[in-house]
Amino acid sequence: MRQISHFRLPGVPIMRRKVEQALMLNRVQRVPPYRDLWREFRSDLLFFDPRGVDWERERIRGLLLRKGRWLEGYFAFPETVYNRSFPEQKGILGKLAESIGENRIFNDRTHFDKWEVYQHLAGNDGIKEYLPGTYQYTEEDLAELLAQHPSLIFKPRLGHGGAGVIRITSLTPDTVIIKSGWGFAVPLFGEQAYLPLLLALAPPEQFIAQQYIAGRQQDGSTFDVRILMQKNSAGKWEAGGQLSRVSLAANLLTNHYYAIVPPGELISDELLAALQSISYVVAKTLDGPFATLGELGVDFLIDESGRPWILEVNGKPDKGLFWQLRDPEMLGRIYLNPLRYQEHLLDG
User: Fold this and answer.
1) pLDDT band, very low/low/confident/very high, at 162 (cuts 50, 70, 90)
2) Nearest partner of 83 among 108, 100, 103, judged by Cα
3) Minimal CA–CA distance to 333: which of 266, 192, 239, 244?
4) Scanning 58, 137, 276, 277, which has the fewest C-beta atoms within 10 Å of its C-beta?
């Protein structure tokens, strides 16, 4: 983007204009959906990135969305911050919290550690039954873990987008198949061959092992269900949106999808309602003890018996996926809910 310049509103000092609501991004830019929705929230909305924060002068260089127009300039620190940077900028968020208050910043953690998430959720009896067996492992106990489960998924604790995920399946005590996220499979024979390779691909200090769950298949495809949980204008959690990614059954991950559809095309209304209820408990469980949150995404797999399993919890769910559903009401809700929650924080 071009160099940001000063601008002056009549009667308002250039560095003293206070903005109530702001979004922190990885890179400051215009976000068109908010411009399209400006009549729905009407308040000024500041977009900035960590490079725009001037601590010495206590000002922020950024883009202001005001009545559908983008204005560039310098502004005083905002009163609330909705963090959309990934991974989260802990130092920046911490210093901002010192200035505007910890309770005025949410999503202070967007890059979730899968093992920490599992530990928090496993402590809640209401959702523990929906979690696949998940393990930390060492070089010494890896062979025992493989003997306990005929098929395991290995995931980077801080992975994103399915990168680095592999599956290992035991065919015999001495024969395994290692499969990549795209479905490429390699057979290996003997522990002396596959254990060193597995440890190199999935170092224990960086990965977790998870029980493999086979998803329900239909016409050579499988799918997941994502529930987008958000806090609303009353500060309460609600399901802002939901979608399903459909993938070839041969693919290990639904990240490699070929279609996005409403979950109602694939599962019953009763099951969808159950997934929303489980997601509500997930959000309530993580909010506070794990991070200060205003939204998160919960990904489910449905097995052949119709039982749901929590596959992943996302700290920065991709709103862009929802555009493919062509549902204006849902799109408006998922973009506006965090802004309504900011208004709730301002009123508190």
Assistant:
1) confident
2) 108
3) 239
4) 58
pLDDT tens-digit map of 285-323 = 999 999 999 999 999 999 999 999 999 999 999 999 999
Q: Which residues contact 141 (CB under 8 A, 6 or more apart)?
A: none
Identify the helix (H) or strand (E) that includes residue 147: helix 142-148
Average pLDDT, stretch 37-44? Answer: 91
| Tokens read off for 346 | 């301002």
Contact 18, 60 (CB under 8 A): no
Instruction: Tell me, yes or no, whether 185 and 294 share the same domain.
Output: no
How many helices (H) and strands (E) are present in the chain, helices listed first? 9, 18
Prediction pTM value: 0.92
Tell me which residue of 91, 84, 157 sits closest to 119, measured CA to CA: 157
Judge if 31 and 101 occupy the same domain: yes
Q: Are residues 219 and 156 in the same domain?
A: no
Residues 191 and 332 in one domain: no
SS3 of residue 191 by DSSP: helix
Separation CA 344–CA 337 (nearest Å): 10
Asked whether 85 and 26 are in contact (CB, 8 A), the reply is yes
Least confident of 7-21, 28-42, 221-235, 262-276: 7-21
| Residue 79 structural domain | 21-106
- 200-218 exposure pattern, b = at least 16 Cβ within 10 A, e = fewer: eebebeebbbbbbbebbee
Distance CA 348, CA 20 (A): 13
Which pLDDT does position 171 carry in this prediction?
Answer: 84
Instruction: Indicate if 198 and 97 belong to the same structural domain.
Output: no
List CB contacts of 21: < 8 A, sequence separation 6 or more.
Answer: 43, 44, 45, 46, 78, 79, 80, 82, 339, 342, 343, 346
User: pLDDT category, 143, cuts 50, 70, 90?
Assistant: confident
How many Å apart are CA 144 and CA 209, to the nearest integer? 12
CATH code: domain of residue 276: 3.30.470.20
139 touches 199 (CB < 8 A): yes
State how far the alpha carbon of 308 is from the alpha carbons of 130, 131, 224, 278, 290, in Å: 6, 9, 10, 10, 23
